[in-house]
Structure formats: C-alpha cells, structure tokens
Batch of 2 targets.
Target 1
Amino acid sequence: MTISDLADLLDQFANERDWRQYHTPKNLAMALAAEAGELLHLFEWVTPEESENPQEKLLCDASLEMADVLIYLVRLADIMGVDLLEAARRKIDMNANKYPAGVE
Amino acid sequence: MTISDLADLLDQFANERDWRQYHTPKNLAMALAAEAGELLHLFEWVTPEESENPQEKLLCDASLEMADVLIYLVRLADIMGVDLLEAARRKIDMNANKYPAGVE
Amino acid sequence: MTISDLADLLDQFANERDWRQYHTPKNLAMALAAEAGELLHLFEWVTPEESENPQEKLLCDASLEMADVLIYLVRLADIMGVDLLEAARRKIDMNANKYPAGVE
Amino acid sequence: MTISDLADLLDQFANERDWRQYHTPKNLAMALAAEAGELLHLFEWVTPEESENPQEKLLCDASLEMADVLIYLVRLADIMGVDLLEAARRKIDMNANKYPAGVE
C-alpha cells in the first residue's frame, strides 16, 4: 500500500458513511492534533530512555495512535490537494540549508 | 519517493548532524504534537468553509506544516520499528467494524 | 478557591501519591498538551455555531477537560515558580501594543 | 488579579477589537491547543532533568506560553459559562476516588 492507496481507501470509507461533509481542512486539522495528543498521553510519564525500550503494550498502543495521525494527515492532504511526500522533500531541503551538516 | 525512502533520508539527515541522541520516541512524540499545533494555528480563526477554499498563502503554509508532521511521524515510526501503512490498514479494519457502512 | 489554593492542593495530592518525581516541567507540558487534545476531540466535528450552543453532555465533558488543562497548567507553573496571572497580565500588555484597539 | 478579573479583561480586549465573532468554543479550543503546542516546542529536546533547572531564556519563554494557554482557557470557560476553579475541584475529587492515596 502507498500513501496514495491509503488516500483512496479513506475517501471510499468516508463516502460510504456520508462523512465527507465533516472533513473540512479545519476539522481534520483538529482531529489530527487530537490524535497527536493521544500519542503524547502514552509517553507523558515514561522517561526518554524507557521510551527507547518500550514494553509490548506501549509499542502496540503507540502504533495505533501513529496510524490515526497518519490517517488524518493523509485525508487532510488529499482534501487540500497536497502531495505529502513532495512537501516533505521540500521541507528537508529547507532544513538542510538552515542546519548545514558538520556545523555546531 | 516512498515512506521508506523518507525514513532513510531522515536517518541520514539526523546522523550527519549527530541528532540521533535527541530522537527518542518521547521527544519525537512531543515534536510531532508541536507541529500539529502549528497546523492548528493556521486554521483557528478561519471558518470550516473558508478552510475548504484556502487562499494561496494558507495552502502553502499548511503544506509545510503537514510536511513537518509527516517528517516526525515517519521518524518516530522508524525509530520504534513500526510499519505506518500496515498500522493504518489495521486501524481502518478496526474502524470498519466499529462504524459499519450504511448504519446511522 | 484561588489559583494559589489549587496549586497547594495539587502539591499535597502529588506528595501523598509519591508523584512528585514524575512532575518535571517536560512531563507536565506533555500532560497539559494531551489534555488540550482531549478538549479538541470534543469539538472536532461540531460547527462553530453548534459549539456556541452546546448540548448538556458537551458542556459537561468540556468543563472536565478544561479542569484537566487548568490542573496541569497550575501544577507546571507552581513547579517552575511562575506567577500565572502576572504572566497573563504581562502578555495582555504585549498584545495591546501588538494589536492596538480601533485599528484594522 | 483573579481568574474572574482576567476573564473581564479579556472580554473587554476582544470587544474593543471586534473579536467576539471569532471566539466560538470550537475556535478557542483550537487556539488553546495550538498554544499548548508552542509550550511543547520549548521542552521537546531538553531532558526532564534539564527542564527542572531551566535556563533563564527557557523559563521566560515558558512563562509567556503558559500565559497564552491561561488566556485562551479563561476566555473559553467564560464564553461557555464554566467556573474553572469549581470544575478543577470536582475533577480532583474524582481523581482522589480513582487513585486513593497510599495505594500502589
């Protein structure tokens, strides 16, 4: 599956449930941030070191919350006509200029 | 570019800057949520309708914030060994059971 | 009850449960943002107009999520030695300069 | 200054700028979460220990972001008619039942 396949699947899923009307960029940005908040909840009391060696339950819960973030991100990008991977490549180029390698 | 290519690019980028030490799951979850917050900022005062017909600046700013969310999400998944698209597929199956199509 | 009373109550609550060790500013900032995410969840699919005339359940749920945000905010400020109301007054002065009244 | 004084100040501030129209609960919840995201940004790469002994700049920046969170939280509660401190007291009672002191 590619991001594009996932976008198609989500579009079909929303259409079958008559949810397209709720999927404005404003609402989807809220849903995305709310899912990012659920991901935060999983890590709020663990140390950075513990998060590097997660217990099975944490790993499983985190992967489902990451899935939720991806789902709303891909849906938002699809609705707005944004090519996510292309935007990421552009952002990395900007970051490479801002933070040159080999410089403190 | 695929998500896997992006993960490799981000790994190289972090290694060249000696940033791996900061990229614990806990820290990356915070960075991801902070970027989701920047996306929220763009939409906080616009109406849902305005967000459906974004002005050029909003579209451009939103695509860069979405890129930041994707970057931290892909980096987090890579560090934790999570297959994002597979997790999304699993989550969609769970949602299909929870919200059957054709039911109010 | 004042904010200062609330801070004292939270300190006692944490001490009685041996939770002080988890209450670093970093962790509390995560908990605060995670609760802000739960508040977002309540409003993600309602229209701005519907949110102005909330149903009883939404109002009740929202007031408890707001309470959680306040609790972590007051705890964070107490741990860092920040006077929240004084900081808010300072911020409002800054905003008054940035956005003068009577100017578009 | 009390929370109630702050609410009055914010109401006056909004009225003088004709901002009341933007201050729906939905929009204010977004603004609050976006400010919580800015607070996250300040702590994302520091260790929990470093956050306990913040440098002057971090402390100053954090106090202004906390002020922003308080401002939107108090404004949201005022618009919705919620007594924040009373809601916090209720939430603490619920938590005391959920997590009795002296129990692991």
Note: Chain C has a mean pLDDT of 96.
Target 2
Amino acid sequence: MRVSDIGEFGLIERLMGSSRKGSGDLVVGPGDDAAVWRAGEELVVATTDTMVDGVHFRGEGANWRDIGWKLLAVNVSDIAAMGGAPESALVTLCLPPETEVAAIDELYEGLNECGHKYGVTVAGGDVVRSPVTVLTAAVLGRGEMRDREPALLLRSGARPGDVVAVTGTLGGSAGGLRRLAAGAASDDPLVRRHIRPLPRIMEGRAGVAVGVRCGIDVSDGLLQDLGHVCEASGVGAIVHADTIPVSGELRVAYPDEALEMACTGGEDYELLLTGQRKRMAGLPVTVIGEIVAGSGLQLIDGEGREIQYERKGWDAFRS
Amino acid sequence: MRVSDIGEFGLIERLMGSSRKGSGDLVVGPGDDAAVWRAGEELVVATTDTMVDGVHFRGEGANWRDIGWKLLAVNVSDIAAMGGAPESALVTLCLPPETEVAAIDELYEGLNECGHKYGVTVAGGDVVRSPVTVLTAAVLGRGEMRDREPALLLRSGARPGDVVAVTGTLGGSAGGLRRLAAGAASDDPLVRRHIRPLPRIMEGRAGVAVGVRCGIDVSDGLLQDLGHVCEASGVGAIVHADTIPVSGELRVAYPDEALEMACTGGEDYELLLTGQRKRMAGLPVTVIGEIVAGSGLQLIDGEGREIQYERKGWDAFRS
C-alpha cells in the first residue's frame, strides 16, 4: 500500500492513531490547525507548513519575496485558526548548492515583510543541502486563557444549532492561480490573493473574545475544511450556496465557475467559524450555513436543491 | 554568488544579520542550538532539524525505524545543548506519492520509541507531496529558570579560564558511517552509534544545575563545534589531543585515523561544555582543554606540537 492509495487525510489519521498519547501539558495534539501546550499560566501554540519546489511553487523564475511571504503567512494562518497570536518562527531551508544567494536574500525579505506585519520574529532554523528546494517554517505563538481555561478555536468545537460563518471572500486564490498560469502579472488582484495571502489573526482573536470556540482556516477548500470540522465535532452541516461570499473579481473573471472555485479552490486563508448566531453578530464575517446533528455536508442552492462537486478540495497525494 | 560559494555558515550568518530583531520575549535568537522564549515565568526552547533522502540518509532499503529515531534524536540533542528538557514535536513529512505506507509506519515507530525514551510527544506536523523524501522535526521543550533568570547552555557563554569538557566518547558515529559503507550490520557497535544517537539531556540539565552556562552538541565535529563556541564567545581554545575520549571501538577499527575522526567526524551528539573546573567536577564529563583569551583553536599533542587537519567538520554545502 502506498501513500497515494490512502491520501493525505488517510495518512494523517494513521499517524494520529500511532502517536496520540498526550503528556499532561499538551492541550491540543495532532489533527487541528496547530498544537497547543500549557506553559505555566500561558498557552503556547505551534504549527508547521512546508512548500516544495514544483509542488507548491515554481523556483525557476520565481519571485522569492512572494514565496517568503507565503511561507510565513500560511503558518500564521494556522495560528489564526486557533484564535492565537503568532510570535516567532523557525525556518528550514533545504537548498541545492547552486542556489543563488540573492534568491535567499529575497526570500528573507518577503519572510521579514510578512513577519513585520504580523509581529513574527525569525528566531532560528536549519539549512541543509537537498536536490530539490524545500522550505519549511514552524511558527510559535500564544493562545488565549479565559478564567484559567484555554480559549481556542478548535475543529472539534462545532455544535448543532451553531451558524457557519467565514471572513472575507472566497475563491480569489484559486482564480489567481489560474490567471497566473495564463500569464497574468503579480499586480492582478486575483493573483495577489494567491501569492500574498493575508491571514486573519485579528478576526480569530475577536472570535475567541466573543466566545466563539470553533474555527479552521480555509486552506484546502471551503467544503473540505468544513468537512474536517464536521468530522472532528461529530456533526453535519448545511451550506447555502447563494450566501457564500464569492470573490467579486472571481465572478467577473470566471462567471460560470466562480461558485465552484469558491467552494473547492482552497488557499484563501480566510477563517471559517462556527458558533451561536448572537456571538457572530459583532464579527466581520458572513453567515453561510448551519451545523446540524448527524453527519455529512450539504451544499444547497436557492431552490433547496443539493449541489455536488466532484472535487471537494486539495489532497496532497491525490490532487 | 551561489550558496555553495559562501557555505552553510556563511549563509547562516547572512540570514542572522537579516532577521535578528528580537521581540521582548525572545531570550535566544538565531545562531545557537535552539531558540528560547519567555512564556510568563517559564522558558520555551525550540529547535528544528531536517533529513533529506540521499544527503542525510538513503531511503532505498533503509531501516525506517532507525531514521525515525534519528530524526527525533538530533532535535532532542539541540534541546540538550541548551540545558533544556524536550516535550513535544511537530513532524513534517515530504513524501513521493509512491512511498510505502509501511515505511511511514516504521518511521513513526522509531520516532515514538525515541520519544518514549526522552519524554517527547508528537503533537502535530504537516504532510506534503515531494519528488524527494524530506523529513523535518521541530522539538519544543522547557528551559531552566534560576532566581527568575534563564539558566541555559549558550554558545556565547565561554570565558577565558574555563575548562573544555565533553560527555561520552567521540568519533564512534563517523566510524559507524564508514563501517556501514563497508557493509557492516546495524548491530555493530559503531554503526549503532551512528544510527541510534543518544542525546545527553540529563547531562545538559546537570550542567545547568551546577552552574555551567556554555554548551553545544557535537554534531558537526568536535573542532568545528568548539570553533562555533569560540566565535560566539569571542575567545580562543586549546585542546589536548591525548585527553580526548576517543571511542574504544573506533581505536580498534581504525587505529591510525581514530583521533582525526574523533576531532572532525561529527554526529556523535555528545555535549561539549565549558565552565569553571570546580563546577565540572561533579559532572560525567572528560576535560579536554581550556578556553583562553583571544581567538582561534589549537589542537596540541603530548609533546606540545600543534596538530592540523585539513577538514574541520561538516559543511552542508561544501562537504
């Protein structure tokens, strides 16, 4: 049996089974956007994400500043998805020896630009030789404590009766990826959504502050990420297609496919939150559906018909 | 200019210059074995290390259990080198889709075996598709506080008058690598030193407890690692070759080269400590030299003559 036979999520489930034996201080182990530990009266939140040349970016002719930004931003987004505040990063560079030093300088300019925006300092890392460029960042941050209890956005926090809400707009990143392939420049607004994601730290913290306790970032695709929440929470969900905040530029660029791209495209790095409707009222989010008892996820159009897409989202080993 | 022109340490220095702007809570930034932050009254220590197929291990026909052990152990050793206690790991697997799931199961058995020995729980990570297998672990742990001040083993902590001391024996790992290449089995004691390193957590913590404040793990090679300490501390060092605890098995296997391999071989994952002689007295270490004012590192034989080796140790981009 090969990794491609069980897919990314089959593999993750398998690894979770083999290693979930939490120590007393581990608050959140494998299977959420980030891991969380207690350190005295505080919470440490940590996550890691990797980008591989030829899979997640194209090194040849690349804008390394953009790659540096994105490497840090996707990790910051995982901290946002826990309702945490990022602080520091460890950066690992696996590089062919012939890599231009100027490319790495630019990579770090992008990393530091993103770090400056989100208050993250590069505190260390590792550099090794490799036949292919692989870039990894691990980001550490703080989680909220309320009344001496962890106050986090967990995938397992959804309850029947919750509304489902998202920040910002969806599908722009998938549109940008397609426009990039068609030769669009990096100042195209859709392309910019793809190469310079803006993680939702403030929104995640605001969610925690008003009592929301369930969240995930939209990295694999709306339906797939909501599916992760449903599975972890043991619930189902209904999403109303005509309430989804599809990117306006995407509607213009790809009118026939905009909804599907918003539902399955991924890499928008918006937050998906679930919680009581009254708690959502003060947050900058759009309500798109509700959590129900049972299991499974239904996407419903304006006439109440179910919409089905063949591809739900990203799987590292199958896409 | 390419990465191979400036080498691993030139690149690290360059990156340190570009990103060393510590936040208030960052106690140790880039350039030591691990990064350290304050979290309230506690210290969080974090490090990351990567292994690339074809560079740090050979995936084909590999014993994945051993690779899993080593992946975690080399990170645990960085925590030991700060005098800390490891707690949790994030593990990133970059895998070709055709990777056998059984190999990953075995990798995790080795990881968890090492984790069990050192009290480390795998708390999360990332899995991505890649044309080449790249394995990364980030390990988090706790650092010591004494009288509300960080009590760490720092590369910058060496002072003229300190003695230089090491735990265990040196060169065994380099000997094991050579024996592996010659077809030796994994139960050969030298091979075992290479594939199943035993980080010195207890020794590092004992060092901190008796007031030692300078340490590094011997990963690149004794002379090179001591060179890192000298550079970070702004001091020089003298090492007496005939006091170096060369591995007994290595002396038997490679009598003519044993000393050189002990000095430059690397991957022994012993600790090198410097501190006042009286503080070292209670520790399970061998004194091999002393720290002096000035700069540079001299290796002296029994007749007071300087020994010079062409190769000082490992450089990721030049070796």
Note: Chain A has a mean pLDDT of 93.
